[in-house]
Design goal:
Elements lengths: L1 H15 L1 E2 L4 H5 E9 L4 E7 L8 E8 L5 H16 L8 E7 L2 E7 L6 H10 L6 H20 L2 E2 L8 E4 L2 E4 L6 E2 L19 H4 L6 H17 L9 H10 L11 H10 L10 H5 L2 H7 L6 H6 L6
Parallel strand pairs: 1-5
Antiparallel strand pairs: 2-3, 3-4, 4-6, 5-6, 7-10, 8-9
Helix pairs in contact: 1-3, 5-7
């Protein structure tokens, strides 16, 4: 434990969190509900007794020190560092991190509207579907969030509908448990992780991961919002992999606009160098027309809740 605490101090630093030997959870946070287990540990809904009005409810991630291997302690602290640097309405807000007893704790924004996967399953179960205007609104928000993090050399590496959270009908990218900062001139991160339905061909072929792999995952999420199903399906893990790597990319049904389908197809190019960046997709006329509603000022693009026609 002492060595772990020293490692936390060295890696986390004052800006990303604090090491606290007093019971900070009990002193500042009141656990309201256990939400389940996340990518690294227990997740709870807590009440922050010192928060500003309207921000009292937050999410607490507790990562057991005993469950963590040395490289996983780095992952936990890296998650905290990454989140502390990201400030965008389409990204779940990070508040603080600290070590308490046998747990490394992370406090993040609470999104009351469940995750996108649950929303999709809810609509599918009721026999409903999302309108193209609603899908475009969410898709643009995700693109703006992706553009923001990619400009800061941050990869998510596990984008999927269950990691997209809803708050006041806005979508927010969350669960950066396996995110990485691209260091120096290195453009590829080679760790193989994530959900197979959203994995790109280059990741499945162990050719590395860059921002274009996040773009592939966003295309899979776009397809899922439109069709209420995965873009690539199969009877088992290997059959899904073979479809992603070897088969033609799926088309959206004819009820969806050809412009939206063209954008999705470009994001699902097998060759990552042929995929557009998030910034390039935002300049596509069909998408740019929707952004005109918000205005072209950078602050408007990054901060305004875009309503599409």
């Amino acid at each position: 434990m002492p060595k772990f605490r020293e490692a936390i101090k060295c890696i986390t630093g004052a800006s990303a969190g604090i090491v606290c030997t007093e019971p900070l959870i009990a002193r500042r946070y009141l656990v309201k509900e256990r939400l389940g287990r996340g990518s690294f540990g227990m997740v709870s809904l807590v009440l922050d007794k010192k928060a500003r009005k309207g921000e009292e409810l937050k999410v607490l991630k507790e990562i057991s020190v005993g469950d963590l291997k040395p490289n996983e302690t780095v992952q936990a602290n890296l998650e905290a560092q990454l989140l502390s640097k990201l400030d965008h309405p389409a990204i779940v807000k990070f508040y603080t991190s600290f070590l308490e007893r046998d747990s490394f704790c992370i406090i993040t924004e609470y999104c009351e509207g469940q995750d996108l996967q649950c929303k999709i399953e809810e609509y599918k179960g009721a026999g409903n579907s999302f309108s193209e205007s609603q899908i475009l609104e969410w898709f643009i928000q995700l693109l703006l969030g992706a553009q923001y993090m990619h400009e800061r050399r941050v990869l998510h590496r596990d984008l999927k509908s269950s990691n997209i959270f809803l708050k006041n009908n806005l979508v927010k990218i969350g669960d950066f448990g396996v995110s990485r900062l691209l260091m120096g001139s290195c453009d590829l991160a080679t760790t193989f992780t994530g959900t197979p339905y959203y994995m790109s061909p280059e990741v499945l072929n162990h050719q590395g991961y860059d921002s274009k792999s996040d773009i592939w995952s966003l295309a899979c999420i776009l397809y899922e919002m439109c069709c209420l199903d995965h873009a690539f399906t199969g009877h088992n893990f290997m059959s899904v992999i073979l479809k992603i790597v070897d088969e033609e990319t799926p088309l959206l049904p004819s009820r969806w606009s050809s412009k939206l389908n063209t954008i999705m197809q470009s994001m699902l190019e097998k060759d990552p160098s042929q995929r557009p960046s998030a910034a390039e997709i935002l300049k596509v006329p069909y998408i740019d027309e929707q952004l005109q509603v918000c205005g072209r000022r950078p602050k408007a693009l990054h901060r305004t809740h875009c309503k599409v026609n």
